[in-house]
Amino acid sequence: MACLLGIDIGTTNTKIIIFTENGDIVEERAFPTPFISDEYGGCYQPQEVLNVLLENLKSFSSGAKKEVVALSISSFAEVMVGLDKSLQPITKSPAWFDTRTDTIFQETKDTIKSDNIYRLTGLSPQSKYSLYKLLWHQKFEPEIFQSVCYWTSMSGYVLSALSGVLSFDYSLASRTMFFDQQNRQWSQELLDNIGVPLEKMPKLTPSGIVLDTIQKNIARLTGLPENLQVVTGGHDHLCAAVAVGVFKQGQVLISTGTTENLTMALDSIPQINLSQLKRSFSWGHHAIPERYYGMSGIYSGGYSLEWFLKLVNENYQYLKKMSQEIPKEVSLFFPYLLGADYDGARGAFINLEGQMEKADLTKSLIISLGFEYKDLWDIMAQNLNIQVERVTNVGGGTQNDFWMKVKSAVLNEKILVPQDKEGSCKGAAILAGMAVGLYNDPEDAYRKTFHLAKIYEPDPELRESLLPWYRLYLELRDDIRHLNEKMKIIQTKRRK
Length: 496
Hints:
Blueprint: E1 3-9, E2 13-20, E3 25-32, E4 35-38, E5 41-44, H1 46-58, H2 62-65, E6 68-75, E7 81-83, E8 93-94, H3 102-108, H4 114-121, H5 130-140, H6 142-147, E9 150-152, H7 154-163, E10 168-169, H8 170-173, E11 179-180, E12 185-186, H9 188-193, E13 204-205, E14 210-213, H10 216-222, E15 229-235, H11 236-243, E16 251-256, E17 260-266, E18 282-285, E19 292-298, H12 301-311, H13 317-321, E20 332-334, E21 348-350, H14 358-384, E22 390-394, H15 401-411, E23 415-418, H16 423-435, H17 442-449, E24 452-456, H18 460-495
Parallel strand pairs: 1-6, 6-15, 10-13, 16-22
Antiparallel strand pairs: 1-2, 2-3, 4-5, 5-8, 7-9, 11-12, 14-15, 16-17, 17-19, 18-19, 20-21, 23-24
């Protein structure tokens, strides 16, 4: 049986998995994504990502490797890699959550027409997007900026190293803030504004397109077959959507990792004015050609829980021992540790009492994540006119039973959880499989590879007990935003 190789370059860890045609795991590896932390967040190390990736590929058994016919890559978005003419990285690659672009964002804020940008690119201006990262390079590393021959994504860089062909897929281009969604081309006007000639941007392609066979030197180094096809991948959340069959309108994906992402599949490009939205969400090209998505999320979903457990000197085993009862008093937590949908967002606990214990705060944090998610969910569904038909949740957070029960109750939705937890990796492998003809279409791939583990049904009593807290959460959210914006003004003045 032919096998497929999926690679997921993640915020914290990179995973490599060989799958059978039926979606079963043959062999897998994982390693921390090479990263240098600093006061702003930090930068990824593209060359090190490639080096460690190749070493891990070498370590797979020869029996598993010889059956692999194609590979593809999913990765985080927004991160840019500047390459020289030999396609070697020569720039820093600030993380998507890195804050060094905040000042650039503030300086250019008044010159950007948000409604126009949203209609063109599907994005509401935020400092994390690639446009601001390139402006940062232009201002603070002008010589290196000018010497860059090509700008690409992290997965685009690794794919070029494996195949010798430079590319940029639509789903990752959708997160740059200089991609013209309607015409599927780079925006000449926006590139001119940031001083990047069009010839420095790679050819745009759909996901799931064969670039070339693997380079012979890479095949010899890793032991992978010389006829292995290298295929364009996509944004990690959209690759996860491919893995669980979320590509038609009415299908919804919850992806729970460092971020708690929400993806609603769309059949066409939405017609929405940014000024009409209570909270912004993005939209763009799906990893499945001719399909689109609406996307929002909690930037620090799983991150918030990890942060809190670390503070109280606990790990995930603590969650399994914790009682499932809802606290009588909920301490509302606003999960903006890595920002939110407005500039200057920061996290906060509200309604703390001295008698509260560790378990109360842990459960309050998880409940509040459900509230934040519900607000995002309702705004997207209403504005996109989505009638939800199927909800699937992937990611490590699905192992937290309390979190899943709360989420199902708050959303009032039945949630499917697949057996395998690495949806992005599997989605990349499926894209590779479709590209080489192992699957007839996305639906065929879903039928052959999706394995259900569990279904969470909404608990009416739990939902009823949480509703008053949810209403209070929505009221306080606007107050928290007001306080954050005041603090942002003070912080900006202090930095000057």
